[in-house]
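PT: before anyone asks, these are the final sequences, not the draft ones from last week. 491 residues across everything. Please model them as a single complex and drop the result in this thread when it's through.
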Amino acid sequence: MQDTEHSIERMGSEIRHSISEDQLSTLIIIGICTGGVWVAERLKHNLGIVQDIGILNIAFYRDDFSRIGAHPQITPSKLPMDIEDRHILLVDDVLYTGRTVRAALNEIFDYGRPASVRLAVLIDRGERELPVQADFIGEKLALKSGEHISISDAGKLMLEITKVQ
Amino acid sequence: MMVGNSQFDEQGCLKHFLTTEGIEKSILLAILDYAESFVTIGDRAVKKLPLLRGKTIANLFFEPSTRTRTTFELAAQRLSADVLSLDIPVSATQKGESLIDTLHTLEAMHCDMFIIRHAHSGAAHFIASQVSPHIHVINGGDGCHAHPTQAMLDMFTIRRHKPNFTKLKVAIIGDMLHSRVARSEIHALKTLGVPEIRVIGPKTLIPDETASFGVQTYYDMREGLRDIDVIIMLRVQRERMFSALLPSKHEYFKRYGLDEEKLAIAKPDAIVMHPGPINRGIEIASSVANSKRSVILQQVSYGIAVRMAIMVMIMGNRSVESEACV
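LR: through. Structure below.
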């Protein structure tokens, strides 16, 4: 188990440096369910943003739906405001194949046409299957085969790497 | 034969949606939960989800119905499916043959789902038994037998207003004899745990076997409405109006029409439902249909989300890991 607070802080200062004051004050943070929402909440706090974060549940936009179906109890996505022409910071916990981000972008555009979307991830574990890169990365990790990464929120955001048998 | 069983595949997953009879509680709740997440889609800029992209859904309406057909069309379109709607007039002499031919023609067009509306009881089951294995069938109402999607949207509307099914007293009022909606509702209400279901109507319109459904029968509407949480009015079929089964229009309204005076007998927060289209002044007074207690238009809106949920349930559960179907 590893504490991730310092990664969040690093992302926060990186975001402050690269996004103008103007944009930062009107920035909309959107977290991808479930881990991305935890990271988004912390970034919102770190960046001092007042506006509630948006929650995106991409279950209905997955590219493997027809193969595996979906769990019926899906928390609906909730974007708190009109996103038309706004600057968005999309947040997820782990960036891996890039398919989740692809689905999230598709869903965001069904709500409107944002001015820009930047991507922040707590962990970039590489091994992309799509041309998707993050703008802000908390930590880069290379996992060995059979290793699995999980994030949990117990007051602090904890990272754990387990060996799958 | 248990008719309900033919809607499941070998793994026990819901493949067709033909009747609410024989579907277990967990699946009914899964449909309601799915629908809940589809309700908000109507508020977005793009009212579409990509879940059934590339699928083709055929509405086969052998009996006219504007609202059921249009809500099925919208539901399919919001899931990004391609939809075609066919109104097929049935001629009594050739229907058996033409029905099978129509099905085979549509199969040749690579349809993935048929939604069937038919005046004959059992039509959807028959079609489900005839189609190729990859095709899913939804019953959009068959004769006097079942109308399961209407029943599910009614369950959804009830749950939105009264979340705990196990505390409800529900009254279904009107022509039980010819009502496919009522039959489907009773099965769903019982499975969901509603402890008290009352059926209210004239003796001539309540079939003898009603008691075997585990419901209470009332011929006096004023008596039957006492303590009721949910009032479901059934449509009086105008063509039966002047048959021997029913008293005059005026007499029917006096005894079984829901007016403000009778509504006052039910609980103060009781909701009023009707599958539509309503006959104002026959089974329901205009003032009641337009009142705050009436959720009739909500039923129509929720019908889209619930039909989306049912389509997704039966087409999207080909789970490879398949530990559970829902």
